[in-house]
Amino acid sequence: MSQPTIVERVTASGIVAVLRADRPEAVIDIAEALLAGGVNAIEVTFTVPKAHRVLEAVADRLGGKVVLGAGTVLDPETARLAILAGAEFIVSPAINLQTIELCRRYSKAIMPGALTPTEVVTAWQAGADVVKIFPSDITGPQYLKALHGPLPQIKLMPTGGVNLKTAVDFLKAGACALGVGGSLIEKEAVASGDMQRISDLAAQYVQIVQDFRASH
Fold it and tell me: Which of 43, 88, 108, 155 is catalytic?
């Protein structure tokens, strides 16, 4: 998949599920539950034990049905490992210029984390496809709106603080997609194996994005 196509698929989805789990074997079940609910952009973080093997397993099972990404990637070595394991996009909590360069080299999408206007522009100028505004649970939708105003050419994806109550506000503020973690992949549902709950939540988030875009 080419880099422009990856970005198009992620932004078309509107929801990037940030998948963290203590048990690697649970990740495939969660990914399938997310897909059943309509979320097809899935980010497996490198805080998951043996994350590269988990990425391989998800890629083997779900293949072209999902756009698979790797998160919490701090350096180019980890990015390359993730790409070889099947990741189509790389997400980081911060800016690492060498990681951006490596993703450009392999034509994979890169979404570094930034917070201040200077960081956002630095990431964009370095070649970021989407800039992840993190941690958005501290700054909220109004901050995203303040960034989007003078920087409309930059695709911004808030991560942190996105839930069913705030999702529309973040979309109104100019988000190209929403990074959603614990409020979508609830720990209680994972612990109890309630994959239907995750599918139901996924469907609710997808509906919010679809309704918003249909009315704007």
Answer: 43
